[in-house]
Design a protein that fits this description.
- The chain is α/β, with parallel strands linked by helices.
- The chain has two domains: 171 residues, FAD/NAD(P)-binding domain (3-Layer(bba) Sandwich); 178 residues, FAD/NAD(P)-binding domain, CATH 3.50.50.
- The strands form seven sheets. The chain has a five-stranded parallel sheet with strand order 8-17-9-10-13, with helices on one face.
- Helix 4 links the parallel strand 9 and strand 10.
- The two termini are 16 Å apart.
Length: 354
């Protein structure tokens, strides 16, 4: 957003509670790579360097953001949390941890995955428990038994990382079987080349084609605990803002050879064990909660009546929710970084003309 504004001749100020550019990317697990290809995942008007692989790694994303910010000379105010946004005549006032900031336009770009969430299960667990946002690599878990809770993209990839990284045993607890799609499509094409047209197609058609592709390229995983959901991936994406699990075929292979054992959802914690919804019990040394995030916007803008029942902005299209107050990056769709880049260009044009 800041780059698009600066390209339009509007001098932006980026306010961030973290201490460096791309902090959310830096905090992700070591093995992370983008689910979308480099041509769909760069900042507006700035491509990845020559030689970047099809799916950039976490560190390559960080370098892309950091280098672009430095080259563009974007003004950055770090270690500053925005606690509350209030309207004022001809603009907005931000109450921050470092004083007040007044601006005609404010763009909230804190994203869908802002605040880690962990279910409040009954009971206590005597072992180690962490959210997936705290997981980095399998080294601390070699020789240990690990239960990964959740089967989204991160949950499945972390389970695979642990299973191939020396963990003694890896379970993956699944409440609702996920829609699964491969990161790479047929013939080496990035998956979004197929997913983007399907996203804009009639939902029933898109779901049917996705189901057929899953049957052909992934096969039936019912006997391994992952049957095909009744609700298709594009229906679920649009209804719940919940994308499918995008993984490499290696993850599917690990499920098939039971390096990753799929088990029922967690029902309760029981000292040194975990009780599952089907009545079984597992005894992990570590529980990794890949249980998602929430937007965490309530304290900042909840008093303005701009959030829906899930705490997400009521308006995410290319229009302000109120004069001068914008939200960007709160959609879930294929090739999201490219979409946000295009949206930022439109926002910047409207702001520059106001």
């Amino acid at each position: 957003m800041a780059i698009s504004l600066q390209d339009r001749g509007v001098r932006p100020l980026v306010v961030d509670r973290a201490g460096q550019v791309a902090s959310s990317w830096r905090a992700r697990y070591d093995r992370l790579k983008l689910n979308t290809s480099r041509q769909f995942s760069h900042l507006p008007g700035r491509s990845y360097p020559k030689g970047t692989p099809m799916f950039p790694t976490r560190d390559q994303v960080v370098e892309h953001f950091d280098q672009t910010a430095r080259q563009a000379g974007i003004p950055l105010q770090f270690n500053t949390a925005v606690n509350r946004i209030e309207p004022k005549p001809a603009g907005w006032r931000l109450h921050t941890s470092d004083g007040e900031i007044d601006a005609r336009h404010v763009v909230v770009a804190t994203g869908l995955m802002h605040t880690p969430t962990t279910p409040k299960w009954p009971g206590e667990f005597s072992g180690e428990m962490l959210h997936s946002s705290e997981y980095r690599n399998p080294a601390p878990y070699r020789g240990r038994r690990v239960l990964v809770v959740g089967s989204g993209s991160s949950g499945m990839e972390i389970a695979h990382d642990l299973a191939t990284g020396g963990a003694a045993k890896v379970w993956m607890a699944v409440r609702t079987p996920p829609n699964i799609m491969l990161r790479g499509g047929p013939g080496g094409l990035p998956g979004e080349v197929i997913a983007l047209p399907l996203f804009h197609a009639p939902t029933r058609l898109a779901d049917a084609m996705a189901r057929r592709a899953r049957a052909h390229f992934i096969g039936d995983l019912t006997e391994f605990g992952l049957p095909v959901p009744a609700e298709g991936p594009f229906t679920k994406l649009k209804r719940e803002i919940r994308p499918p699990s995008l993984v490499d075929i290696d993850v599917i292979d690990a499920i098939r050879d039971r390096s990753i054992e799929v088990v029922a959802a967690v029902d309760a914690l029981d000292g040194d064990g975990v009780l599952l919804a089907d009545g079984h019990r597992v005894d992990p040394d570590v529980v990794v909660c890949a249980t998602g995030y929430r937007q965490g916007l309530e304290s900042m803008v909840g008093h303005l009546g701009m959030l829906d029942s899930r705490g997400a902005p009521k308006i995410t299209a290319a229009t302000p929710v109120a004069p001068g107050l914008w939200f960007i990056g709160f959609s879930a769709r294929p090739a999201l970084i490219r979409f946000v880049g295009k949206q930022s260009r439109l926002f910047a044009k409207m702001i520059a003309q106001s």
